């Protein structure tokens, strides 16, 4: 029995060494638009180390109050990097900046930073498929809104986009989660429609982009996600839409990322 147990333990460690061989590190990426640098977590798969090929990239956006470490701490994304041979990039969205270029906070330019500057840095410093078809972006909650918004605002950057439990209609929660720090039409002269994904979604008609949206049926964002789904259907914009049991929780998102990663890999260049 002792010998058998020892062999089982050795096999476990050998398999662990083989399976979990991704590399995760934090880099500081400068923003010309904001005049400072922000931390970004980058995960490369094991095959990256000795390969001369270029890899697709999935950008992962955190939710309100999060940072660049959330995805690797809370979900199995590092293992998925190895499984599918993709580079993962998780930027810091500065807690509550909603991934937009704010009209009322001139120092908050996260649409430019994440949608342009980080992508340029990653393509320059890593072996990437440096074109739209080789990039996907997704996120949870604030990050789900951010992923869709960035794809609309930077139509030549991302070929695939996902949203999990996305806060896709900020005006419904304008006094929550720091939204009024970066969006306030009464001060900027804008309209809430400028930040409502269902209103902006007609832009997808002019883009060749693959879309996947999901939300838990017990999530407080479920109705706005259903409205977005109906709007996309009404315009005949192809997309995957999924509702599952669950709420606004890491348990839901840790499960959801598995399906979204499959969706992205399906559409990446082979």
Automatic annotation (TrEMBL):
GO molecular function: acyltransferase activity, transferring groups other than amino-acyl groups
InterPro entries recorded: AB_hydrolase_fold, Esterase-like, Mycobacterial_A85_antigen
Annotated source species: Sebaldella termitidis (strain ATCC 33386 / NCTC 11300)
Protein name according to UniProt: Esterase
Pfam families: Esterase
């Amino acid at each position: 029995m002792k010998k058998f147990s020892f062999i089982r333990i050795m096999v476990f460690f050998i398999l662990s060494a083989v399976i979990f061989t991704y590399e995760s590190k934090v880099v500081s990426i400068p923003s010309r638009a904001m005049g400072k640098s922000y931390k970004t977590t980058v995960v490369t798969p094991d095959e990256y180390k000795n390969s001369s090929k270029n890899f697709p990239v999935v950008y992962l956006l955190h939710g309100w109050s999060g940072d660049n470490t959330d995805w690797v701490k809370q979900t199995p994304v590092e293992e998925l990097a190895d499984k599918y041979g993709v580079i993962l990039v998780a930027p810091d969205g500065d807690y509550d900046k909603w991934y937009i270029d704010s009209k009322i906070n001139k120092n908050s330019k996260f649409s430019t930073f994440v949608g342009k500057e980080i992508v340029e840095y990653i393509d320059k410093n890593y072996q990437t498929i440096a074109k739209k078809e080789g990039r996907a972006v997704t996120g949870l909650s604030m990050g789900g809104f951010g992923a869709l918004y960035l794809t609309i605002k930077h139509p030549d950057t991302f070929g695939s986009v996902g949203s999990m439990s996305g806060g896709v209609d900020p005006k419904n929660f304008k006094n929550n989660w720091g939204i009024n720090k970066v969006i306030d039409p009464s001060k900027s002269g804008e309209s809430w429609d400028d930040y409502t994904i269902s209103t902006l979604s007609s832009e997808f008609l002019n883009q060749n982009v693959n879309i996947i949206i999901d939300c838990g049926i017990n999530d407080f964002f479920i109705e706005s996600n259903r409205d977005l789904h109906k709007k996309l259907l009404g315009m005949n914009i192809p997309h995957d839409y999924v509702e599952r049991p669950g709420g606004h929780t890491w348990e839901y998102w840790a499960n959801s990322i598995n399906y979204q990663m499959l969706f992205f890999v399906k559409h990446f260049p082979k």
